[in-house]
Amino acid sequence: MSNNRIKFASKLGLIAAAAGSAVGLGNIWRFPSQVADGGGAIFILLYIGCILFFGIPLMMGEFIIGRSGRANASGSFQKLAPGTRWKWVGRLGILTAFLILGFYVVVCAWTMEYILQSATGQLMSLENFAHNFNELRQNSTRQIVWVLAFTLLTAFFILSGVKRGIEQSAKILMPLLFLILIVLGIRSLTLPGASEGLEFLFKPNIKTVKSTIFLDAMGQAFFSLSLGMGAMTTYGSYFRDDSNLRQTAVQVSVLDGLVAVLAGVVIFPAAFALTQLPDTIVSSLVAGGPGLLFITIPELFNQLPLSSLWSTLFFVLLAVAALTSAISLMEVVTSYLHEEFDMLRRNAVTFVAMGIAILGVLASISPTFFDVLDNTTAKVMLPLSGFFISLFIGWYLDRKITFAQLTNDGKLPMSVRFLQSYVFILKYIAPIAIVLIFIYGILF
Ligand code: PHE
């Protein structure tokens, strides 16, 4: 199953790279605003359910396809199912990755602006953080400059090679981000009035639930685990023959879920404790929308000594997490153009970066376009692609390949029962659940 493709050098390297892709703005920015929107605890339970029931199996599935195909997201399907239309599943993923980048870079742009504002002490001298965020959202020039800068930065990292750029940065900085979230979580939980936020997070309340909650939770799980857009397939293609796919998928998914919940523990107690509107709390949180993180976090830093320093560090680490995710997204599209159209990697990167810059500029100018990109990718394209990936492994792919990949050609122990249950989940449970959730989300 081997060829000369570049591989991740170390075991930790591949977990770090896959975790670097998964852990990003999806956990720290998107998750809290979806939880606020989805009404709290029930959303979180559904989200965790989605990670367990189709997140982990599908991540293993993408790894299987990538490592046995040893090519980009479309090429891997082509190798495993030559002459069929399955390659379109890969292509759908590649298009999705491109569209996600279009709005992802805008949130990255906000992060960059907040690094600057924190480092210059400007952010912490403000009184109204909501006003500050809204002002940024209306300032197209500032957003566009950062969108372009961030896109260039991502392109630069991609060109400096798969191994060096991604592995090195992720290995050191991710644990640091985790640490700072823990410190922030403790501060948030010890604020007077924090318990209401905790209750919102962990005590199910049927009254706050919306009808689209299933679809929202599923979309969030796909988005956060980087599933359904070829990222994990592409990374799987760089895994070594002795990498343990099952273990890696479980570790990455659990870590990703943990970071998201931790981000919730940071944001909600603080949002409830520091917002002055106890009666309309939920609606005020929802009104936070995509700005929730950028409004609540500075409020929280305001409660700490050396606030500007903390805040700068936090946004720098957030930018790094976002960068490793953006790199994985750009890598999906780049490796496709490079391998399928014989483009030089440099040209492919330039081409992709230009496309992203155009989408990013439009999404900075128009919040509606931003929302359209966000919603169609997370709630339509990712589940659709997840649906086909599970069908591919459940129904099409030779069971021997699945077995060989999950056990590294028989070197790792695995019971027949496990294989059977795994295939059963991807054959029936995941696709049926995805379709039902999808139909329910559209009808209600
Ligand atoms: N999972 C990343 C995040 O949570 C975003 C992402 C989506 C990255 C898709 C790669 C592919 O921020």
Look at the structure and give the CATH class: Mainly Alpha
Instruction: Compute the number of strand runs.
Output: 0
Q: Which molecules are bound besides the chains?
A: phenylalanine
Largest sheet: none
CATH fold name: Sodium/glucose cotransporter
Please name the CATH architecture. Answer: Up-down Bundle
Structural features, described:
The protein is an all-alpha fold and 444 residues long. It is 79% helix and 0% strand. The protein has 19 helices and no strands. 54% of the residues are buried. About 1% of the residues have low confidence. It binds phenylalanine (PHE). Phenylalanine (PHE) binds next to α1, α2, α10 and α15. Phenylalanine binds next to α1, α2, α10 and α15.
Question: How are the elements arranged and paired?
Answer:
Layout: H1 11-22, H2 25-38, H3 41-69, H4 73-80, H5 87-119, H6 129-138, H7 140-159, H8 162-189, H9 194-202, H10 213-224, H11 231-236, H12 245-274, H13 281-288, H14 292-301, H15 307-340, H16 345-365, H17 367-396, H18 399-407, H19 416-443
The chain binds phenylalanine (PHE).
List keywords for this structure.
binds phenylalanine; 79% helix; mainly alpha; Sodium/glucose cotransporter
What's a quick, concise take on this entry?
With 444 residues, the protein is mainly α.
